[in-house]
Write a structure and sequence with these properties.
By secondary structure, the chain is of the alpha/beta class. About 40% of the residues lie in helices and about 15% in strands. The chain has a seven-stranded mixed beta sheet, sandwiched between helices. α1 crosses α2 (about 15-25), α1 crosses α3 and α8 packs antiparallel against α13 (about 330-340). The longest helix is centred in the first third of the chain and has 18 residues, at about 75-90.
């Protein structure tokens, strides 16, 4: 095949890589050049191995990863883990980043690469029906990672457990004036806020409206500004940030205001970013199973390719609290209560791992499959 590519390149006066891109359907080749390459390849009988396999099996080759343009820090870590796991199992891996035109357009671009499997990551919006139709026609295995796609396999992270434990740690630690950064309101709570409200309810407490600070950003600066504003208006003795970056920003604001962590204000983050354990005051935070989620997405892709007609599977991975100096451990009995999940906790199904297995997912990981 390599000799045929070189022959086509010489006759048309283009590079071998251009010929390869044109025949494999990859972008970056002018339409006229692509047509000339394909016409000459047809005359010479040079059909790429990937195309031959497509004709034989009805499938493409390799894996396409669809990602947002600016993922959160923890989502970027999941993407790195996903790419590494995908290389082990698929060999050929392409990452397509949202160009602002929506998930439907991104799927169309991915299908031009003729993948046999596709992982759609969170933050890209809903999957349009026309994109679903195109994926079904091409027999592409699709998995949503940290997003649920109706009718497709998915792997998601449940924030309930870790958020519940974090809130319980602060409340059982004696916080009378806790502050919770939230992305929703108590009237229409998201998963994290439901867990926080459940923690209050489990202890027979009613949260005051001042306990909740609605966030307008999610980085260091946003955490700094939100904590500084709250501290100027009301007493705060415990703070649960929306993520680790906001927690670091909040700790800086508290320090500038003369508050000590954890003596005056206990602080908890979310995500367990690599920096969390190496701060001057190591950050108590909620950890996500980044590598396990990424590997599960790949395993579901492989299971779907083995068993295309089996029902859609969903795998839920729990978060859990990691206790460090910024919100230290309580007495043993209280720490046991933090992690016990007593009456009043979020629903039992949401507090434990939930797996709807697809054939071959659990304990049956096949040998790595290398791309062409």
């Amino acid at each position: 095949m390599a000799g045929a590519l070189a022959q086509i390149a010489r006759q048309l006066g283009v590079s071998v890589s251009t010929v390869s891109r044109a025949l494999s359907g990859r972008p970056g080749v002018a339409a006229g050049t692509r047509a000339r390459v394909q016409a000459l390849a047809d005359r010479l009988g040079a059909v790429p191995a990937v195309h031959a396999r497509m004709l034989r099996t009805g499938r493409g080759s390799g894996l396409a990863i669809l990602a947002p343009f600016r993922p959160t820090t923890v989502a970027a870590l999941r993407l790195q883990a996903l790419f590494a796991a995908a290389q082990e199992s698929f060999g050929s891996v392409r990452v397509l980043v949202d160009d602002g035109l929506g998930l439907g357009r991104l799927v169309s671009q991915a299908l031009q690469l003729s993948p046999e499997a596709m992982v759609v990551t969170g933050g890209l919006g809903p999957l349009p029906e026309e994109a679903c139709d195109a994926l079904r026609r091409r027999s592409v295995a699709v998995v949503g990672m940290d997003v649920e796609l109706a009718g497709y396999d998915s792997v998601r992270v449940s924030r309930l457990t870790g958020a519940y434990q974090a809130a319980r740690l602060l409340l059982l630690g004696g916080a009378r004036h806790p502050l919770f950064f939230t992305a929703s309101d108590p009237g229409a709570p998201d998963e994290r806020l439901r867990a926080i409200l459940a923690a209050f309810d489990s202890l027979g407490r009613e949260p005051a409206p001042a306990c909740f600070a609605r966030l307008s950003g999610s980085g260091f600066e946003a955490g700094y500004a939100l904590a500084r504003s709250a501290w100027s208006r009301q007493p705060v003795d415990a703070l649960f940030a929306y993520n680790d970056e906001m927690a670091v920003g909040a700790m800086r604001a508290l320090q500038e205001a003369g508050a000590r962590t954890p003596e005056d204000v206990r602080v908890v983050g979310f995500d367990d970013l690599p920096m969390a354990a190496f701060l001057a005051c190591p950050l108590t935070t909620v950890t996500q199973p980044v590598a396990a989620v990424a590997q599960a997405a790949i395993d579901l892709c492989l299971a779907r390719l083995r068993s295309p007609q089996s029902p859609a599977a969903r795998m839920d991975f729990l978060t859990t609290l990691i206790v460090r100096a910024s919100a230290p451990r309580l007495a043993p009995a209280l720490m046991e209560a933090v992690f016990a999940g007593p009456a009043g906790a979020p629903t039992e199904a949401a507090m434990r791992p939930s797996v709807v297995p697809n054939q071959g997912v659990a304990g049956d990981r096949p040998a790595p499959r290398k791309g062409p």
